[in-house]
Amino acid sequence: MAQETDPATAGINDPNLTQVPTMAEALADLEADAPADTETALTDPADYATLAAAVAAQPLAVDDEELNCLAAGVYYESKGEPLEGQLAVAEVILNRTSSGRFPRSVCGVLKQRGQFSFVRGGSIPQPPASAKAWKTALAVAKVARADKWDSKVSNALYFHARYVSPGWRRARVGSVGNHIFYR
């Protein structure tokens, strides 16, 4: 009697089948290939093939207040979004600092009255340091600040969640995740 083969698992033990590394194996390989100067190497997003790899490689230390503000903006506005959506939110905040229409500092942009709903009374709440989403937001903020990754909404100055209808008459740039971006 011939043994039936399930097409979904056929060839799974084939010695010629290319093995896909686990995330732990991929990260171990990445660390093993890193140059001796890891402080520089791990923080330069241009060294990575994907946004996820660049984000994963960022050290978790907060360098300064502006970075902390940017990461808080990413955390509170987009913590449930894909990395591309979080990067897009960070880019909006950074774009505002150089537009001439908003405050010149990241903290000033976030604290501007009526712009970001998580800011209350001009105060930016500090996210929980142990939260995984905070660590991701901090890494995304570092990648955005390095300005090495292109976003499909890179020139946006405004955004809102899909469930909101602000009635703006602004040029739509695109959408990422649950946010719509405008110029």
Automatic annotation (TrEMBL):
GO terms for molecular function: hydrolase activity. Keywords: Hydrolase. Residues 80-182 form the Cell wall hydrolase SleB domain. This is Cell wall hydrolase. It comes from Sphingomonas tagetis.
